Amino acid sequence: MSKAVFPNKWLPYLLVAPQVAITLVFFYWPASQALYQSVLHEDPFGLKSKFVGLANFQSVLSDPAYLNAIKVTAIFSISTAALSMSLALLLATAAEKVVRGRGLYRTMLIWPYAVAPAVAGLLWMFMFNPVMGTFAYMLRRNGFDWNPLLDGDHAMLLVVVAAAWKQISYNFLFFVAALQSIPKSLIEAAAIDGAGSTKRFWTIVFPLIAPTTFFLLVVNTVYAFFDTFGIIDSVTGGGPARATETLVYKVYVDGFVNLNLGSSAAQSVILMAIVIALTAFQFRYVEKRVHYA
């Protein structure tokens, strides 16, 4: 086993310095500021502050609006992760069966990942806008009273579909790579033994791509918690009646709209703790069902 030898002992530190600096500036520094501000009560302009201990956390956890945001976030994150991963896996398996134009097929499926979250949200909002949306008109014409501006369930369905559509391309890339790493001889041997396509998938293919599936489960959970702010803000703005107000969106509303800085910082700390705990739970229990070849 070869060992890398650097001509200068400071060179390895210089190579990792940019990444360390970015992590310190954009993660650890904001996280430390959130922890600091979460125990303070500040005026809207940040001119005066008062130490209040855990009062901000007590106020947040006893707020019905925050408890509703937890429920909305759970529904939204589970639905988005399940929909985006299942559709990506379906498209990836279909891509493996395409003989002609396979490269074009894959490229077309990858393109949506380049769309910004806010732009993706606006695209779906325009298509399903109850006033001018083409698909909204088709739904109403077929007897479905579609109105995400007034109906909370419709709004939740719209942001879930928009967020899942944005993430399908990312999941598709990893599923395609995982499927290509499976030895064709295993699938051919199962086919010779008489196993149908469905049985081959669940007994051979899916267990072999389980590590990739677990990785995407963690990534999609974090995505649903943090990276969907632009979609929710552009599509529903957290409404109607807070039906789509997730935890990260409530942090924004309380901190930047209502200027309740202490409460917003406390919510940021709680959100960070929830994501860390959920990720730890996934690694502790879900990973037990993952078999690494």
TrEMBL record:
One cellular component term from this protein's GO annotations in UniProt: plasma membrane
Gene Ontology biological-process entries: transmembrane transport
Transmembrane segments annotated in the record for this chain: 12-31, 69-92, 113-137, 157-180, 201-226, 265-286
Domain ABC transmembrane type-1: 70-282
Places the protein is found: Cell inner membrane; Cell membrane
One Pfam family of this chain: BPD_transp_1
Topology in membrane: Multi-pass membrane protein
Keyword line: Cell inner membrane, Cell membrane, Membrane, Transmembrane, Transmembrane helix, Transport
InterPro entries, per the entry: MetI-like, MetI-like_sf, UgpAE/MalFG_permease
Assembly and interaction partners: The complex is composed of two ATP-binding proteins (UgpC), two transmembrane proteins (UgpA and UgpE) and a solute-binding protein (UgpB).
Function: Part of the ABC transporter complex UgpBAEC involved in sn-glycerol-3-phosphate (G3P) import. Probably responsible for the translocation of the substrate across the membrane.
Family statement: Belongs to the binding-protein-dependent transport system permease family.
Name recorded for this polypeptide: sn-glycerol-3-phosphate transport system permease protein UgpA
Organism per entry: Aurantimonas marianensis
